[in-house]
Write a structure and sequence with these properties.
- The chain is built from three helices and 31 strands.
- It is globular.
- By secondary structure, it is mainly beta.
- The model has no long low-confidence stretch (mean pLDDT 97).
């Protein structure tokens, strides 16, 4: 496993390095400690041509100024918390809101805005980037000193494994994800509408106008949210479903079947690239980058709508306020552990 390092930029006068792991099959993963953020994933297509298959900012200044979430580690709680309010152990909490009346992706100073510490471990068959951060009691008004470790592993089997660990000294919440956007064409200027997706999911969460879940989990069979067999994303994105039309695409949690094996996959028929994912989380949030971003550029151009698709594995959003959505409470003496694996291949 090859390791290279270069300077990605500076934040608050501190130099931030980009670390790149490359395996013998030509798959490479790059990441920075700011936000424990994936900055690039490169894989070959069916003809052996290598290209970046993720949507990422070109530089650290854009990440800091625009907070696009591209490839970032999200927390303490991924998704939205209704009105930024919840109760733990009989005590009511109001955390910082940053999207209307709600908290989004950990609040205005979420984990994606923090400079983590990084350690590098390389061996013959894998390389690891081990990110650690202590989120202090009261950060974004969450209780508890939260000790975090997020590990990115690249293997010779073309796997990107994300391992999350956390401990706390007070009862608190933790529900992390990585906000990676895939575009398997290798060209961010191309839409992902022709990508095809399959999910091991029978239910999805319906949304309110502010994108909070209604609390209802609805059967997807026969709807635009049915990806039980491979289906073009365009069939969903351009459907007449009222929620999809309002959002200009998908931004929905899908409930994952909890049996063994791969939970879903996305592939691009033109390049042949395919990504599979497996996770111990109970849901994946699929977001199809539903608007153009003109506040920052990639390769000198604005980032177009439907430039990428997320596979954000997590406990169902707003679980602390939604009965039956899952447990995101972390107690002192417990260790939070969760693993998500993305595997890259070619579909002939």
């Amino acid at each position: 496993m090859e390791l290279t390092t270069s300077v990605f930029g500076k934040v608050n006068g501190v130099e931030v390095n980009e670390y790149t792991l490359t395996n013998s099959k030509g798959v490479s993963l790059s990441a920075i400690p700011y936000g424990a953020t994936l900055t690039k994933l490169v894989t070959p297509d069916k003809n052996g041509n290598k290209a970046t298959i993720t949507v990422n900012a070109d530089n650290l200044d854009d990440i800091v100024a625009n907070r696009p979430f591209y490839g970032a580690t999200i927390g303490r709680v991924a998704g939205r918390i209704a009105k930024g309010q919840f109760s733990l152990s009989g005590k009511d909490y109001q955390v910082d809101i940053n999207e209307g009346d709600n908290m989004l992706h950990g609040g205005p100073e979420g984990l994606d805005t923090k400079l983590w510490t990084v350690d590098v471990e390389t061996a013959k068959n894998e390389g690891k980037l081990v990110f650690t951060y202590l989120s202090p009691d009261g950060e974004n008004n969450f209780p508890g000193n939260l000790s975090l470790k997020t590990t990115f592993t690249l293997t010779e089997d073309n796997e990107w494994i994300i391992d999350y660990e956390a401990t706390t000294d007070q009862t608190t919440l933790y529900n992390p994800t990585n906000h990676v956007y895939f575009n398997l064409t290798g060209d961010v200027k191309q839409s992902i509408a022709n990508h095809r997706m399959k999910l091991k999911s029978k239910y999805y969460a319906t949304l309110l106008d502010d994108n909070l879940p209604t609390g209802d989990l609805v059967k997807s069979e026969g709807t635009p949210f049915d990806f039980s067999t491979y289906k073009s994303l365009s069939e969903a994105i351009h459907s007449d479903d009222s929620e999809i039309k309002r959002l200009n695409g998908l931004d929905h949690p899908f409930v994952l079947e909890q049996d063994e094996g791969v939970k879903g996959s996305v592939y691009d028929p033109e390049s042949g690239r395919e990504v599979f994912f497996d996770t111990d989380c109970n849901s994946v949030v699929i977001f199809t980058h539903n608007g153009e971003v003109d506040s920052m550029e990639i390769d000198g151009e604005s980032i177009r709508e439907h430039a990428g698709i997320t596979l954000e594995t997590q406990t169902l959003p707003d679980a602390v306020n939604q009965p039956g959505f899952g447990n995101i409470v972390l107690q002192p003496g417990e260790t939070f552990r969760s693993t998500t694996t993305y595997t890259f291949g070619i579909k002939e």
